[in-house]
């Protein structure tokens, strides 16, 4: 006799084959996404000189992509509710790779911005859905660790793109540097399609009108805790992108006179983010998410303060601390978003990503105006104020660690 069960999918456990394949697939998606998204960041001075634009204008090539991503994350989330997370992410990464291969062919700065916007819109299908995909397919008790591993993978993807583009641009120009990254992203996209296991926790949404689908956003926008997390995404990501957008301009100018290949090495600081994004899950289970989030924000401010010094060694120390703090904060906030959203999880994650990339676009560009007019110190001061605003939002709206007994300690991560 065959018994039919309606037991819901409990998720892949840490250490299982499915768990490892999901993380490996998302790591490849992270490389395909973030290597392309930020590959131009390390070679902005090349673009500025080649296309005869200012530092803030050159940074628009980053902002155009992140604006495209920000406006696309919600449509991608709606599509994924119908088509499934894996299928939608696969389509997104293929489209982004095709557009990425066209970027080096841009004849003018305006054409570059258009292609970067479209590339970012295609890339929006990955970060918009990755956390929702993890939440559905991984056991809840391992979801925080999985989110940390995913964020660590995205930091490696971003690092790879910058490290590759800079040295190639030094030898053959920024167009060849960008092309090299796009070709590697294409290989990573294929690996994602091969590795991603068949989804088991996804339940397709019923056919609904657009108004009904938009209604899924209202609970997220009325939730003060989620709004606080969206504020973290906007303010902290904006500060993070600003530092990496303009530090190369500072170090290529006198008295430092760094070549582009040396500026690219600055992005090795991303390895600190790879470590911190995986560590914070353990710290959060002990001290609570809000405490760790505030500690990471404090590390960002301390790192900013160190970058005000003149010696290169101290600037690099500050960059490492700042980067570790950011990725730790992002890992906590992104994972917490999925935990707090009991309905419309894809939309909640998409709103987080919309805020995240809106901050990258708006703050990442406008801080360049401060840098051009008033210098690095003034820009760092503005970014420190933004981090303080984020900390105030966290203290005011996010809950502290709940009092738990030893027998339910394993569930205290969702606080």
Automatic annotation (TrEMBL):
Protein known as: MFS transporter
GO cellular component terms, A-Z: plasma membrane
Highest classification ranks of the organism: Bacteria, Bacillati, Actinomycetota, Actinomycetes, Micrococcales
Main localization category: membrane
Entry similarity comment: Belongs to the major facilitator superfamily.
Compartments where located: Cell membrane
Stretches assigned to the Major facilitator superfamily (MFS) profile domain: 22-402
Transmembrane segments: 21-38, 58-78, 90-107, 113-135, 147-165, 177-196, 226-247, 253-272, 292-313, 319-342, 354-372, 378-398
Keywords tagged on the record: Cell membrane, Membrane, Transmembrane, Transmembrane helix, Transport
Domain of life where this protein originates: Bacteria
One Pfam family, short name: MFS_1
Membrane topology: Multi-pass membrane protein
GO molecular function: transmembrane transporter activity
Record-linked PANTHER family: BLL2771 PROTEIN (PTHR43271), INNER MEMBRANE TRANSPORT PROTEIN YNFM (PTHR43271:SF1)
